[in-house]
Amino acid sequence: MTEKSKLAQLKEITTVVADTGDFDAIAQYSPEDATTNPSLLLKAAQMPAYRGLVEDVIKSVTSGKLSSDEQLSTCMDRLAVGFGEKILETIPGRVSTEVDARLSFDKDASIAKARQLIQLYEQAGIGKERVLIKMASTWEGIQAAQQLEKEGINCNLTLLFNFTQAVAAADAGAYLISPFVGRILDWYKANTDLSDYAPADDPGVQSVTRIYNYYKQSGYNTVVMGASFRNTDEITELAGCDRLTISPQLLQALDDDYGLLERRLDPANTGDKIHYQLGGESAFRFELNEDPMATEKLSDGIRAFVADQIKLETWLRDIQ
C-alpha cells in the first residue's frame, strides 16, 4: 500500500482528462482537461440538474419552436459550447468540443463548423487556446485539422484505431490524438478465439504504446491521449502516456486503489526504433482498408455519434 491513490500517482506522470459532460463528476476528480462527445452530451443534457442550461440555449436561438434545420443546428452548437463553458469553469485546462459526425467525410464543412464553434466560444469570452475541436480521424478529418492548426485552432482527432491514422495525424500537425483502447479490445474479443487478455497483451494497450513510442522517437509534438477504457488495468498499463481521458467510474476506481503505480510509457525509453513511411491519400485509404478492426470501429464510431446526435436533436424538439 502507498500513501497516495493510483489516481494521485497517475496525475504525477500523466495529464488526466475527464471523459464526461457531468460538471459534478468533473469537479469531484479535479482533472486538468475534459472531453465530450454527442453520446456524453445526450446523457448530460437529459439530467434534471442541467435542464436550465438547455432551456436557456433554446431561448437564445428562438422564442418559439425549433422550426428549421438551421435553428436546430445552431441550437446544437450553442448547447455544446454551453456545456463547454460550464466545464471550463471547473477545470484549469481545455475542453474538447466535437464537430457534427455527419461531416466526417467533408473537409470544408468540418472546417466551417469548427470556425463556428470557436466563434461561439469567443463570443462567450473564451479564447481558442482553451478549446480543442474534435473530429473523426478520417482522411478528410485529418486534412481539416491540418488547415485549422494553421489558423491557430487546435484539434483533437478522435476515433483513432490504428498506426496509419496516428502517423497521418502527426504529419498533419494535429495538436492531439485520441487513440481508442477499449473499443480495440472489444473487436478482438468479438472476432478472435481469445476472450481474455493479460493487461500487457491487450491489443488496445499495445496499439497506443506503439504510437506513443513512435511519436517520441520521431520528435512529433502531437499529444497522445489514450481513450475509451474498459478497465483500470488498461489505464495503469499506459501510465506515463501524455494524457489519458477516463470516465468517472474508472476515475473513482483508481482513486480507491492505493497500490503502487509503475510508469509504463517513458519518452526516454521507447524501445527499438520503429521504421515507417506513410504515403499520400491513396496509401492511407488502402492501409486503413487492410485493417478490418480499424475500418469497422471507425465506421461504427461515426454511426454511433451520428445516432446520438440525432437523438439529442429529436429530444430538443420534443421538450419544447
Note down, in words, how this protein is organized:
The chain is of the alpha/beta class and about 325 residues long. Helix content is about 50%, strand content about 10%. It contains 14 helices and eight strands. The chain has helices spanning about 5-10, 25-30, 40-45, 50-60, 70-90, 105-125, 140-150, 165-170, 180-190, 205-220, 230-235, 250-255, 280-290, 290-320, and strands at about 15-20, 35, 95-100, 130-135, 155-160, 175-180, 225, 245. Helix 8 (about 165-170) links the parallel strand 5 and strand 6 (about 175-180). Helix 5 crosses helix 6. The N and C termini lie far apart (about 55 Å).
Main features:
single chain, 320 residues, alpha/beta, TIM Barrel, 14 helices, 8 strands, globular
State mean pLDDT (0 to 100 scale): 94
CATH class term: Alpha Beta
CATH architecture descriptor: Alpha-Beta Barrel
Total domains: 1
Overall geometry comes to: globular
Helices, strands, pairings?
Layout (H helix, E strand, L loop, with lengths): L5 H6 L3 E5 L3 H7 L3 E3 L2 H8 L5 H11 L7 H20 L6 E4 L8 H17 L7 E6 L2 H12 L4 E6 L2 H9 L4 E4 L2 H10 L11 H16 L4 E4 L5 H6 L5 E4 L1 H9 L24 H9 L2 H27 L2
Parallel strand pairs: 1-2, 1-8, 2-3, 3-4, 4-5, 5-6, 6-7, 7-8
